[in-house]
Amino acid sequence: MEIYLLRHGIAADLGEDGVMSDADRPLTKKGCEKMKQEAEGMRKLGLEFDLIFTSPLLRTRQTAEAVADVLGLTDKITIIDALAPGRSFARGVSKKAEVFIEIGAHGFERALLVGHQPDMSELTSVLLTGHRDLNVEFKKGALCAIEVAGLPPRAPGALLWLLTPGQLKRIAKS
Q1: Which terminus of the chain has a smaller tally of CB atoms within 10 A, N or C?
Q2: What's the CA gap between 80 and 57, in Å, rounded?
Q3: Which residues contact 118 (CB under 8 A, 6 or more apart)?
Q4: pLDDT tens-digit map of 1-31
Q5: pTM (predicted TM-score)
Q6: Are 27 and 13 in contact, with CB atoms under 8 Å apart?
Q7: Which of the following CATH numbers is that of domain 2-173: 2.60.40.10, 3.40.50.300, 1.10.3720.10, 3.40.50.1240?
Q8: Domain ranges, ordered by start, for the chain
Q9: How many distinct helices (H) and strands (E) make up the chain?
Q10: CA 168, CA 139: separation in Å to the nearest integer?
Q11: 128, 124, 82: which is closest to 106 by C-alpha?
């Protein structure tokens, strides 16, 4: 089973254009354009996802939609609360399992999870090592691929690759 982790694109700051809530921060125009370019890089890599899971926050939903539009997967998006910022890992062991329970309820071989920092880094760490102490840098728009035997992971997964947003955009242009 392959798990792909994507951090949301560049979003508006609080107070910008009347945005008053973190949950309502949209991708900026530049953020939308860059995510579409990155999604084109994913398409050129031949990436296919059975499902796309996203945090309920606006910027992650818009990121998931940009990827789904380019890859023709608009009917494959599922919003899950466990990917909301801080929900998955910051509150202890029981919350660590929450994301695995939610996505594990769906049958898939390849899934894209769209979320936030530091949760994407911590999720990567848990999938690769079984704990959350591995420091993995996730720039906005970074994409990571991990192979696991199942969910919840009972053994360390294998890091297939981690691509920066710039690398994905260069792939799109090649």
Answers
A1: C
A2: 10
A3: none
A4: 999 999 999 999 998 888 899 999 999 999 9
A5: 0.93
A6: no
A7: 3.40.50.1240
A8: 2-173
A9: 5, 6
A10: 12
A11: 82
